[in-house]
Automatic annotation (TrEMBL):
Classification via CDD domains: GIY-YIG_UvrC_Cho (cd10434)
Tagged with keyword Ligase: no
Annotated ranges, domain UVR: 207-242
Protein's job: The UvrABC repair system catalyzes the recognition and processing of DNA lesions. UvrC both incises the 5' and 3' sides of the lesion. The N-terminal half is responsible for the 3' incision and the C-terminal half is responsible for the 5' incision.
Protein name: UvrABC system protein C
The organism of origin for this protein: Autumnicola psychrophila
Subcellular location(s) per record: Cytoplasm
Boundaries of every GIY-YIG domain copy: 15-93
Residue ranges the record marks as coiled coil: none
Record note on quaternary structure: Interacts with UvrB in an incision complex.
Keywords carried by this UniProt record: Cytoplasm, DNA damage, DNA excision, DNA repair, Excision nuclease, SOS response
Main location: cytoplasm
Pfam families: GIY-YIG, HHH_5, UvrC_RNaseH, UvrC_RNaseH_dom
Boundaries of every UvrC family homology region profile domain copy: 272-471
Length: 597
């Protein structure tokens, strides 16, 4: 029997919560998604106009739809997560973090051992974690070993075997690290009390252990056993010192998971903080690669399910920066102020730092990949035909209409290429006329590149709105380059991007790297142009003052400035000193000009 056409499959989808799967013509899975209402969600892919190019590409490839109906949206969320991990579909978010994490195991045995492991064996043992590094695990285990004497041997300490003297105490007993349960030197009840205290410490609850040690110290002190009291006091100090290193939030906040997200065009970064007894006992951030245009809400939903499964969290409350729909038995809180708000902000700060670190690492490890990603993003964001590897930006400078100049800055692969920067004195335009000045410099720049056979840019940016852009386009048209080089204008006020023959500007998201690079180009062109303009005005002002004196020419001005370095010193110079440089007659003219009174 032939598979039904897509139209038929869409019509027969149920209005129930569930998970849907898209397949291509080769039966390869493209995408897995969840929905409250399967019919509405799946149909929207085929009826809406998609702004995202990637979604459009995926929809064109879909040839078959499969679905699984579940009882609730929570079940759909869990099933979606499991199917994504199993099939790794091409268009689904990819979690970049698939390491095996260490756990602390309390072994299911008589006189349980406590040790680190990466393997979870379903034998009834207790596993605490996972922890994000072995360093944390070792620090915690060193703390536990310093507080409680535990066995490290792997003997089967069954009651009958101990009674029959099967084992002898080892070196650990003689070193004082073990109480010798293998020879019945320690009661099982006493050992299990220690294990219960260790459980609490691993969970982040130091209160019971501290109280227990304080009681013991008091008893030893009352019995005049001061050495034993001192030994217990040292343990209390160790425990308090370790506890103080935990970030204390608020003792009333306990058994809570905190999540936050920051994202850019290609990735989402989700931070997870676990709070127990008022202290942060775990912090972990994951990177999620977007495949379509997933929102922060969608990414966070997926991340929460994944992280809670991975870290075996059963907290009944989660704090988030914004509301999402989650499991019915978990309370979602979006704090507005106070300690709860601060902890969400701390989580967000961790996510942002992680994103910055990833960017820095990427630039060091694989700079080409970083550049390629930005260039591809700019091509898509600015609707260009090719990647803008070579960009040139123009800016006019004229303060109060005087000394009009222009600057051209060049970026190659998203970075300034300062050796290619160019300055222009406006030659053909009288007075302050930004439009005519822009036309002149664009024309001069590309006429020269054409004459010298130099490479042309893929993108030209003019600082200004429609008027400056039209002037730039006119210059390109005169040179026969219209349509061969992309040209856009950026207006300062609202960061509007204008295209030739299009009255509606483009507004880029303020967070996009594309807009940041355009702003950097614009600001650099402005800085370079203003510096050139100021230097030119200063020279003109300087020359004008000296050359305006009758009988003093350009060569005399140069000689004077070489010797005296500034106009101020020339004014203050004596007639004798001036005569030594320019002769008696010119010295007298200068001296009398500045000493008329």
């Amino acid at each position: 029997m032939e598979k039904p056409a897509l139209e038929v499959q869409l019509q027969t989808l149920p209005d129930s919560p569930g998970v849907y799967q898209y397949y291509d013509k080769n039966g390869k899975i493209l995408y897995v998604g969840k929905a409250k209402n399967l019919k509405k969600r799946v149909t929207s892919y085929f009826t809406k106009r998609h702004d995202s190019h990637r979604i459009g590409v995926m929809v064109k490839k879909i040839r078959e739809i499969k679905h699984i109906v579940v009882a609730s949206e929570t079940d759909a969320l869990l099933l979606e997560n499991n199917l994504i991990k199993k099939h790794q579909p091409r268009f689904n978010v990819m979690l970049k973090d698939d390491k095996t994490y260490p756990w602390i195991c309390i072994k299911n045995e008589r006189f349980p051992r406590v040790f680190p492991t990466r393997r979870l064996i379903k034998d009834g043992s207790e596993y605490y974690g996972p922890f994000t590094s072995f360093k944390t695990v070792n620090t915690l285990l060193d703390l536990i070993k310093g507080l409680y004497k535990l066995r490290t041997c792997n003997y089967d300490l069954a009651e009958d075997k101990i009674r029959n003297d099967k084992y002898k105490v080892c070196l650990e007993y003689h070193l004082g690290n073990c109480e010798g349960p293998c020879e019945a030197k320690q009661a099982e009840e006493d050992y299990n009390r220690n294990i219960e205290a260790i459980r609490q410490i691993v969970k982040g609850n130091f209160k019971d252990s501290l109280q227990q040690f304080r009681n013991q110290m008091k008893v030893h002190a009352e019995n005049m056993e001061f050495e034993d009291a001192q030994r217990i006091k040292e343990k209390i100090n160790v425990l308090e010192n370790y506890q103080s290193k935990s970030t204390i939030i608020n003792p009333k906040i306990t058994n809570v998971d905190v999540f936050s997200i920051t994202s850019d065009e290609g990735y989402g970064y989700v931070n997870f903080l676990q709070i127990s007894h008022g202290a942060i006992i775990r912090s972990h951030t994951i990177e999620m690669k977007k495949k379509l245009d997933e929102s922060d809400q969608e990414l966070l939903e997926l991340a929460i399910t994944e992280i809670r499964q991975r870290f075996n969290s059963n907290s009944k409350e989660i704090y988030l920066p914004f509301n999402i729909e989650f499991a019915e038995d978990v309370k979602v809180t979006v704090p507005q102020l106070g300690d709860k708000k601060k902890i969400v902000e701390l989580s967000l700060r961790n996510a942002k730092y992680y994103r910055q670190e990833r960017f820095k690492q990427m630039k060091i490890i694989d700079p080409d990949r970083h550049v390629n990603r930005i260039m591809a993003q700019m091509k898509e964001d600015l609707r260009l035909n090719e990647e803008p590897r070579h960009i040139e930006c123009f800016d006019n400078s004229n303060i109060q209409g005087t000394n009009p100049v222009a600057a051209c800055v060049v970026f190659k692969n998203g970075k300034p290429s300062k050796k290619d920067y160019r300055k222009f004195n406006i030659k053909t335009v009288e007075g302050p006329n930004d439009f005519a000045s822009m036309e002149e410099v664009v024309f001069r720049r590309y006429r020269r590149l054409l004459n010298e056979g130099e490479d042309l840019p893929q993108l030209i940016i003019v600082d200004g709105g429609k008027g400056q852009l039209s002037s730039g386009v006119k210059a390109l048209e005169t040179l026969g380059l219209r349509g061969k080089i992309a040209i856009i204008g950026i207006a300062k006020k609202l960061e509007e991007i204008f295209y030739p023959d299009d009255n509606i500007p483009l507004y880029l998201d303020k967070k996009t790297e594309s807009l940041k690079i355009i702003q950097q180009l614009r600001n650099e062109a402005h800085r370079f142009g203003i510096t050139f303009h100021r230097n030119k005005r200063s020279k003109v002002a300087l020359n004008t003052e000296l050359e305006s004196i009758a009988g003093i020419g350009e060569k005399t001005v140069i000689e004077l400035l070489k010797q005296f370095r500034s106009v101020k010193r020339i004014k203050e110079a004596s007639l004798e000193n001036l005569s030594e440089v320019v002769g008696a007659s010119k010295a007298r003219i200068l001296y009398e000009h500045y000493h008329k009174e």
